[in-house]
From TrEMBL:
The protein's name in its UniProt record: ATPase
SUPFAM superfamilies cross-referenced by the UniProt entry: P-loop containing nucleoside triphosphate hydrolases
GO MF annotations in UniProt: ATP binding; ATP hydrolysis activity
Superkingdom of the organism of origin: Bacteria
Domain ATPase AAA-type core: 235-327
GO biological process, one term: double-strand break repair
InterPro entries recorded: ATPase_AAA_core, P-loop_NTPase, Rad50/SbcC_AAA
Residue intervals of the Rad50/SbcC-type AAA domain: 6-190
C-alpha cells in the first residue's frame, strides 16, 4: 500500500490543496499552525477507509468530524462569525497490491455522516483481503503516532497482563488503534508478556518476539537487551554494559523511541506472522509520525529516519518536524514536503545554518536573537555617541539619558554595559 496523492477540500486550514507523496519517506516542514498535524489527520482518515472493509472484526473507520470543517471569518456588525465550510472532502489516490485505486470520503453538513460511496473500490479490496486472511496474503500495516503518543492511552487496559485466560488471536489485532494517534503502551507490554509466557511454555523463543526486539535494539543507540520482567510487570532495557533499566524510569527519548518502534514491529508481526523472520522486511504500509524529533537528542535525530527506513523498508513514512537535523538526513529534496515555499533538490550538502535560514525561514542561525539584538544596540549606541559629541551643550543630558536607556535591558552583562559606558565617558565625560 502506497499513498500517491491527497486532495483536501474545506479540511481545517486547507480550503483546496493537493499533496503528492514520495513512495518511501515524506518529511513535512512548516511553521506552527501551517497545517502539519492537520495533514496527518487527513491522511489517517483516508487510510482508515481500508479498515471499513473488514467486517469480521470491528475496526476504527475514523469519521470526518464537524470540527474538521474549515472556519471562515466574517463580521456582522460588532459580532465576529466563524461559519463552517461544507462539504469537507478527503480524496486520495494510491496503490494497493499492484492496483492503482482512487477513493474519497466526504461530510456534507455538520449533522451528516461521513460518506464513503466513492471509496467502494478500496473497501472491496479490503473485503477481499478479509476473506483471504486464513491464507498467505500480506496485510499492509497502518499506524498514526501523534505528539501525545506516549502520554495518553487509547483505552484503559489492565496494567497486569492476563495470561490465564486464552483469547483467540486474530491477524486483524494488528489494526487495533491503528489510526488513533496514541500508543497503547499497556497493550504493548501485555504482548511482550504473552511472548515471554510462550517462551517458557514452549522452551524456545517465538520468532516474532525476536523480530520485534531486534527492531527496537537497532533503533536505540547502544541498546543491547530488551525483555519483559514478570516481577515488575514491565519492560527492561539494557544500554551497553549498564544494568537493565525499567521502562518507567528511562528518559523520555528512550521511552518514546522504544514504544514507537516496538508498536510498529508488533503490528507488522501480528498482521503477517507467516512471513517469519522477514516480516519487517516484507510488510508494506503507511506510517504517520507527528514531530518525529520529539524528545530525541540531535545525535539520534541525525539517524532516526535512516534507522526506520532500514528496519521497515517496504513502509511509506510521513513525518513532521521542526528539526534541521532531520531535514539534513534526507536522501533527496524529493522527500521534503514543504507547506510553504519550494524544496531544494539536494539537502545532504546543506549546513544546518543553510537549512534553518533557507528552508525553515528561521533567519541567521550563527548567533542567538539576543546576541544579534545586543550587537545592533551597540552599533546604534556608538552612532548616537558620535551625534552627541557634536550636539549643543543643552542637548547633552538628553543624549546621555537615551544612551543609558538603550543599554539598561542588558544588566546581566556588565562587561557589555561597561564597555559602552567607557566610550561615552571618553567622548562626553561623566
Amino acid at each position: 500500500m502506497k499513498l500517491e496523492t491527497l486532495n483536501l477540500q474545506n479540511f481545517r486550514c486547507y480550503q483546496d490543496r493537493q499533496f503528492v507523496f514520495h513512495p518511501n519517506v515524506n518529511l513535512v516542514v512548516g511553521r506552527n499552525a501551517a497545517g502539519k498535524t492537520a495533514l496527518l489527520d487527513a491522511i489517517s482518515i483516508a487510510m482508515a477507509t481500508w479498515l471499513i472493509g473488514f467486517k469480521k472484526k470491528k475496526l476504527d473507520g475514523k469519521a470526518i468530524l464537524p470540527t474538521d470543517a474549515t472556519l471562515i471569518y466574517s463580521k456582522q456588525g460588532e459580532e465576529s462569525m466563524f461559519p463552517q465550510s461544507w462539504p469537507v472532502k478527503v480524496s486520495a489516490t494510491g496503490v494497493v497490491g499492484q492496483k492503482r485505486i482512487e477513493w474519497e470520503r466526504a461530510k456534507h453538513s455538520e449533522a451528516g455522516n461521513t460518506r464513503y460511496g466513492n471509496a467502494i473500490e478500496l473497501i472491496n479490496a479490503a473485503k477481499l483481503s478479509d476473506e483471504q486472511q486464513g491464507g498467505d496474503i500480506i496485510f499492509p500495516m497502518i499506524g498514526y503516532y501523534g505528539t501525545m503518543r506516549l502520554w495518553q492511552d487509547p483505552r484503559a487496559t489492565k496494567a497486569k497482563p492476563d495470561l490465564d485466560k486464552s483469547t483467540k488471536a486474530s491477524r486483524l489485532d494488528g489494526y487495533k488503534h491503528s489510526v488513533d494517534p496514541r500508543i497503547a503502551v499497556k497493550e504493548l507490554v501485555k504482548w511482550f508478556a504473552k511472548q515471554a509466557w510462550r517462551t517458557f511454555q514452549q522452551g524456545k523463543e517465538p520468532i516474532m518476539l525476536s523480530v520485534v526486539r531486534e527492531a527496537v535494539l537497532k533503533c536505540i543507540e547502544g541498546a543491547t537487551e530488551l525483555r519483559y520482567d514478570a516481577d515488575r510487570e514491565e519492560l527492561l532495557l539494557t544500554i551497553g554494559d549498564n544494568d537493565p533499566q525499567p521502562f518507567s524510569i528511562l528518559s523520555d527519548g528512550q521511552r518514546s523511541l522504544l514504544a514507537l518502534v516496538a508498536d510498529m514491529a508488533q503490528k507488522a508481526a501480528t498482521l503477517n506472522s507467516h512471513l517469519g523472520e522477514d516480516v519487517l522486511k516484507k510488510t508494506p504500509g503507511i506510517i504517520l509520525i507527528d514531530e518525529l524529533d520529539l524528545h530525541l537528542h540531535p545525535l539520534w535525530q541525525r539517524r532516526i529516519i535512516e534507522d526506520l527506513r532500514n528496519t521497515f523498508p517496504e513502509v511509506q513514512f510521513v513525518f513532521t518536524t521542526h528539526s534541521p537535523f532531520l531535514i539534513q538526513s534526507l536522501r533527496s529534496g524529493e522527500e521534503l514536503l514543504m507547506l510553504e515555499g519550494m524544496a531544494t533538490a539536494e539537502l545532504s550538502n546543506k549546513t544546518l545554518g543553510d537549512i534553518a535560514e533557507g528552508i525553515m525561514s528561521a533567519g541567521q542561525s550563527e548567533v542567538s536573537d539576543r546576541y544579534a539584538e545586543m550587537k545592533g544596540v551597540a552599533l546604534t549606541y556608538l552612532q548616537t555617541l558620535q551625534e552627541a559629541e557634536k550636539a549643543p551643550e543643552d542637548k547633552l543630558n538628553d543624549y546621555k539619558q537615551r544612551l543609558a536607556d538603550s543599554i539598561a535591558p542588558y544588566a546581566e552583562n556588565p562587561a557589555y554595559q561597561a564597555f559602552l559606558e567607557m566610550h561615552r565617558i571618553a567622548k562626553l565625560g561623566q
